[in-house]
Amino acid sequence: MSSLSDFASRIRRHGRRVEEGANLIKRKVALVVDREVVLETPVDTGRARSNWIASIAAPILSDHEPYAPGAKLGKSERANAAAAMEQAQLVISAVKSGDDIYISNNVHYIGLLNEGSSAQAPSGFVQSAVLRGVSAVRGARILS
Description:
By secondary structure, the chain is mainly alpha-helical. Helices cover 51% and strands 6% of the residues. A two-stranded antiparallel sheet has the order 1-2.
């Protein structure tokens, strides 16, 4: 027969596994959403694509120059996408349980792009990215 302290110990271990599992799922959703918004963002100069920035605890409220600037780069442009996704991977890999993850873009025209102002991406590409992130973990189990 187990003692009460053994039971309490098992409950604490179980709680830690639930917390760790939930954190893994949260990080996976964030990585998928980031990848999707980066790759779906229409590209001319690379500025909008480069400004998808992941952060912990608070959103980034500024924007920056493209990682690999150019003109008429087009949707197949890869250098800015790779750099933006690498930035997110570094940040998201450091997320701990209880941390909030933000993926923000502060170029002044990101809303117009999301509304379909470019023929390179359909309107609502940001919302679609979030749905794909959630779908990526649908049915995921926190405990083994």
